Amino acid sequence: MKKIKVLSYGLNQANFILPIYNALYEHNKALHFDINNFTDHGKKDIEPSNHWSKVNLDISFSLKEKVRAILYCFSNIFSIRIILNRYSHIGGDIIQVFISEIARLIISQRIKKRKYNIVHTHFVIGGKVGPLIDLPLETKLILTFWGSDLLRSGLQNDILLIRKALDRADVITVQNREMKEHILVKYGRGYEAKIKEGLFIIDPVIFKTIDKITHIKGKLDNFKKTLGITNGEKIVVIGHNANENNNHLKILEQFDIQYILRQNIKLVLPFTYGNPNKTEYKNKILIANPKIANQIHFIENFLSTEELGCLRVLTSVFIQMPISDAMSAAVLESFYTSTKIIAGCWLPYGKFRRLGLNYIEIDHFELLKDKLDLALKSTDIGPVGEIIKNNFFKDAVIPFWIKNYEYSE
C-alpha cells in the first residue's frame, strides 16, 4: 500500500486534530500525518504513533536556505508586495518585516521538498497559510477555519495572503453556515463551491467521565472545596480560557457584591491557557473588581479529565461572551450536563439551536444580571446527551473528513 503523506500545518492543538487523524487512519491505513508544532495544552504524555509524527518546519534555518530565500525575494514581485503591504499597514522595523518574508519563503520550500500528497492547515491567518500559497498543483490543500481566525479583523497583509491561499485551496472547511457566510462576505462569493460544512470530532472521554462522575457525590464535594465553595454557592463559569477576548472585565463589572451574595454564587474563571501574561491579567481583573474579589476563583492549573468532569457537572450557569468563537468544546460539554448557558448573540451558535440545544442569548453586557437571574430560575433544559452523541461524536462526523481526504494521483 503506497503511503499518503499528509502535513498538518497551522494551529495543531491535540484535542481538536488527533481525533480526526486517528479516525481517518482507522479508515485508511495508507495515511501518515506529519504534525507541525504539535500542541497538547498541559498533557505531556501524548507521544507519536505509527501513523503520525511531530515535525517542526519553522525553526533552525540554515545559511544556505537564507541566502537562497533572500535572492528569490528580491526577484519576486509578490514577495516585494507582501513586504511593502505589511510595512505600510503596521509600520515598525522594515528589517523585521523582511525577515518574516524570508521565513515564509524558507518554510514554503521545505514543505515542497517533502512532497506531501495532502496539506491541511488549521487556523487560516497569514502566518499559517503564507507558506502554502504556491504548493504544487498535485498537492491537495485543505484550509480549515476555526472561528476567531475568521471572525476577528485581520491585517491587510493577512488578507492578501489569505486570498491567495483561498484561490489555491482545493477544499475550505467551516463548522457552520454562519462561518461560511462570513467567508463569502469577507473574501467574495467566488469561493462558495469550495466551502464545506463539517465539525471536529469530539473526544468521547470527557463525556464518559461526566456520565460516571455525576453519581459520585464524594468526588464532587471534594472538587467544590478546591474552588473555595463552603456555603453551597452556585457555580457560574465565565469564559473558557485566560484570553482577554473572553471579555472577563466587561462581564465582571456587571456584578456588585450585594447581587453576588443575594444569589449565593461563586464566579469561576478558567485560566489554564490562552494568555502568556495571565498572571498580569489576573491581577488586572482583581484590581478592577476589589469588592467581589473574594467571590472570584481562578483555575490556573490544567484539570485532569475527572476534575473537568466535576466542574461541568457542578456548574449552574456558563457565561460565554467572547469576541468570537465557532463551536467551543466547553459549550458542548456544558450542554451535555444540562448547564444553563448565556451566550453573546454575535456568536455563530445557530447550529446548536437548530439541533434543539437551547441557550439564553444576550446582546448587551448591561443585561447580564437579568439574564443570569433568568438562568438561575429556569428549569432543567432536559436530557440532550443523545443530540450531542448523534451529531458531534465520531460516527456522525468522520464521513465528512473521509470524503474530503479522498486523494488520487
From TrEMBL:
Transmembrane segments: none annotated. It holds the Pfam family Glyco_trans_4_2. It comes from the Bacteria. SUPFAM superfamilies: UDP-Glycosyltransferase/glycogen phosphorylase. Residues 105-176 form the Glycosyltransferase subfamily 4-like N-terminal domain. One of its GO terms (molecular function) is glycosyltransferase activity. This is Glycosyltransferase subfamily 4-like N-terminal domain-containing protein.
